[in-house]
Amino acid sequence: MLEGAGTRLWGFPPQLMAPIVRELGPLRALGWFVRNMPRYERTLAALGGLRTHLLCVAISLINGCPYCTYGHAYAFQLIHLHERGCLFPLGERAMGELCGLAPASIRHELVDALRRAGLEAEVPAVERVIELSIGHGLRPTAPNDVRLAHLVRMFAVLNSVGIKSRTAPDEAHDPINKNSALKQLYAGLRAATGT
């Protein structure tokens, strides 16, 4: 059922669904998705796909999850190309290589790439989600913090299961994944630049 929902939403059955069911059990897994996915969808609507996927990448990098990092980095890349008409300086594979680095190094690399891409407006949200990810017991203070804190809690579970199960990366975790022409264009541009 969960794989079917992923297929309807993103055009493919996410490989993390079976490990989540094994880890949480069928009823707890279903309940977890029922509690978390509507809030996640509201965050996507409020913050937009570009920012939301970027934040998911930052959290997943801090937590060290290659599966979620790749899925959200690829979604971010496709949305960036679609909205801005150019490649982001760090490809999804380069972003994935940041997995396991110290939070300060992850922050530095992401902020540098955002500035090079002219996305300085995204820096405060990335910095805040990193603070919330590493600041055990740090409480949300601003209205948008509530959304960010939910992403941090939600991805703590997803990342934990992804790491424990060693789930291999699959595709972009966004409806834009269904846009075959955009994916082909993106792959061609990345290949041409060697990034």
What is the CATH topology classification name?
AhpD-like
Q: What kind of oligomer do you see?
A: single chain
The helix-and-strand class reads: mainly alpha
Task: Encode the helix/strand succession as letters.
Answer: HHHHHHHHHH
Task: Please state the CA-atom Rg, rounded to the nearest Å.
Answer: 16 Å
Tell the overall outline: globular
**Named CATH architecture:** Up-down Bundle
Fraction in helix? over 70%
* Biggest sheet architecture: none
CATH class: Mainly Alpha
Beta-strand proportion = under 5%
Number of strands: 0
Q: Give the low-confidence spans.
A: none
Notes on the structure:
- It is a single chain.
- With 195 residues, this protein is mainly α.
- The protein has a single domain, classed as Up-down Bundle (AhpD-like).
- 72% of the residues lie in helices and 0% in strands.
- The protein has ten helices and no strands.
- It has helices at residues 2-10, 17-24, 26-47, 49-63, 66-84, 92-96, 103-116, 123-134, 143-165, 180-193.
- Helix 2 (17-24) packs across helix 3.
- The longest helix has 23 residues, at 143-165.
- The radius of gyration is 16 Å and the shape is globular.
- The chain starts with a helix and ends with a helix.
- The model has no long low-confidence stretch (mean pLDDT 92).
